[in-house]
Design goal:
By secondary structure, the chain is mainly β. Helices cover about 0% and strands about 35% of the residues. The strands form three sheets. It has a six-stranded antiparallel beta sheet with strand order 1-2-3-10-5-8, with no helix packed on it. Strands 7-6-9 form a three-stranded antiparallel beta sheet, with no helix packed on it. A two-stranded antiparallel ribbon has the order 4-11.
């Protein structure tokens, strides 16, 4: 949090070094530091196997778990056999997002869709790569197989479900 002077990380097993990933954003207020573990996350399962988007969203840095100035963060894991992370897609006018894709086989990829709904583009991302999605951009991804991603959102609005949904037939 704001004003923290020291932050340290270490691997519990030096022969299998841990990998660390973090998001940060400017802070205008001080909140208590707290370690947030798996057991603290707010879990939500969404989607349907019939539309290939069944996934579990783990919300770690959200107001119900840990207050922050403007950063929210979590982890989404697709169920086995599911490929889409968000479809129909959406924008979030009041904040931007970063997706960090991981837990992928070396030969798999995610086609990350982005851009304005009427003029979309895609990026091809692989294991341990990230994508920044501006507030005006849609964001959705489809993988060649199941994957996991960390999402981080930055903005003054921390309400998780404040999405401006885009109908699939309106995408170009």
């Amino acid at each position: 949090g704001k004003g923290a002077q020291t932050l340290s990380f270490r691997s519990s097993d030096a022969s299998r070094p841990a990998k660390f990933y973090f998001n940060s954003a400017p802070a205008h207020s001080r909140f208590p530091d707290k370690k947030v573990g798996k057991e603290d996350a707010v879990r939500t399962t969404l989607g349907d196997a019939a539309t290939s988007n069944r996934r579990t969203i783990n919300k770690y840095l959200v107001p119900d778990v840990l207050p922050t100035c403007q950063l929210t963060m979590g982890l989404t894991r697709l169920d086995e056999g599911n490929l889409w992370n968000t479809m129909p897609c959406h924008t979030r006018e009041r904040r931007m997002e970063v997706y960090f894709y991981f837990d992928m086989n070396p030969d798999s990829a995610v086609f990350h869709m982005m851009g304005q709904p009427q003029e979309t583009r895609h990026l091809l991302v692989h294991n341990e790569q990230a994508v920044i999605s501006p507030s005006w951009s849609i964001h959705a991804g489809v993988g060649t197989e199941r994957y996991t991603f960390i999402w981080g959102m930055v903005g003054e609005n921390q309400v998780f479900d404040d999405m401006d949904h885009v109908n699939i037939r309106d995408l170009r």
